[in-house]
Amino acid sequence: MERYPMLEMNLNILYDNTKVVTDLCNKNGINVAGIIKGFGGIPDGAKEMIKGGCTQIGSSRIEQLKDLKEMGIDIPLLLVRIPMESEIEDVIKYSDISLISEKGTLILLNAEAKKQNKVYKIILMYDLGDLREGVFTKEELLDLALYVENKLDNIELYGVGSNLSCYGSVAPTTKNLSELAFAAEKIEEKIDRKLNIVSGGGTTTLPLLVTGGVPNKINHLRLGESINNTQDLPLYWNCNIEGLNPDIFVLKAQIVEQNEKPTHPIGELMVNAFGEHAQYEDRGIRKRAIVALGNQDVGDCFKLIPKDKNIKVVGASSDHTILDIEDCVNQYKLGDIIEFNVLYQAMLFASLSKYVYKKLIK
Ligand SMILES: *Cc1c(COP(=O)(O)O)cnc(C)c1O
User: Fold this and answer.
1) Residue 37 lies in a domain
2) Which of 25, 266, 293, 345 could share a disulfide with 5, CB 3.0–4.6 Å?
């Protein structure tokens, strides 16, 4: 008997989506680092992304890259979270390139690379206004680039990059990416050679690529979501790319209670399971189901999209999710399985949870 909740991951669709995105990028002179952190770094997923044309695989978590390195995957591995001091040894051992914004970190990496007898590649991050990681001014960026180039024997200045619409919700535009391109050219003048990588961001840069607004100098993107969670593109960025299939992940949960109840709680209202003062709309008595799946598994139940469009997610505690099934044509009963598509947060939580069974479809 199948166990639930279950996250199905369709590797064929993952491959197809990767191919669509890498073809589009390659046509525009851009290589793709396939980012695997959104699905917990599942190695079979990484392998499909390599087959689909990614030239690097990246994650924010060195543990996920370590798994790939130890499996003998021989494509460059990119750490996309700026490294912490406590992981420097692993960073040098299990990744080939990382994104960097601090001189102090560079010094540690250089010493560790020397110890491990390696030359380690880095991409300097330039903050274009989103205010997450990155060197803030062009002057500082130039200084740091020259410092790496001239002073750190075991570090190779491999490129520059930027990150947008993560903290500050700042959209990638031709204007801000041109500043990255300009900074890259300035560095190249100073070091008298070309940089290998000018990395123009993640999925949020893809809509700009589709409309032709990414400057030519940008030759690298770090893409996860636009490959593995493609419903976000039309939903958040009004961007439709032909051939992308949103059904890589399907989360399945089992009905453990099915009945009719009022829609407004009865009694004196305090806070819910998460200490929040929730709002409840009184819609009378309605048919509903509880599935054995909760915010512990998905982060936020409202990041679930029921495949049956007549099902409405009403709310959830850690282990139970309540669904309104009044308008469904299908007569759901105890023990039935409900299927959901997952938005990014739910994909992230479900793929990492040991309480969610995984099934790879190929
Ligand atoms: C997560 C991450 C990415 C990839 O983001 P997606 O939205 O999954 O494409 C790229 N760059 C950095 C620095 C990241 O942390």
Assistant:
1) yes
2) 293
Q: Is 203 in the pocket of ligand 1 (CB under 6 A)?
A: yes
- For residue 190, indicate whether it is catalytic: no
pLDDT in tens, 260-298: 999 999 988 888 888 888 888 899 999 999 999 999 999
Name the domain count of the chain: 2
The count of C-alpha atoms lying within 13 angstroms of the C-alpha of 154, restricted to the half-sphere facing its C-beta, is 15
Residue 159 Cα to ligand 1 midpoint, Å, equals 17
Q: What's the pTM value of the predicted model, to 2 decimals? A: 0.95
244: in domain? no
Q: Which two tokens stand for residue 249?
A: 């992940």
> Residue 323: which CATH number?
2.40.37.10
User: Same domain, yes or no, for 223 and 280?
Assistant: no
Nearest CA to ligand 1 atom 13: 80
> Dihedral (C-alpha) 42, 43, 44, 49: value to the nearest 10 degrees?
100
Do both 144 and 254 map to the same domain? no
CA-to-CA distance for 80 and 194, rounded, in angstroms?
22
Supply angle C-alpha 285, 288, 291, rounded to 5: 155
Does 93 reside within a domain?
yes
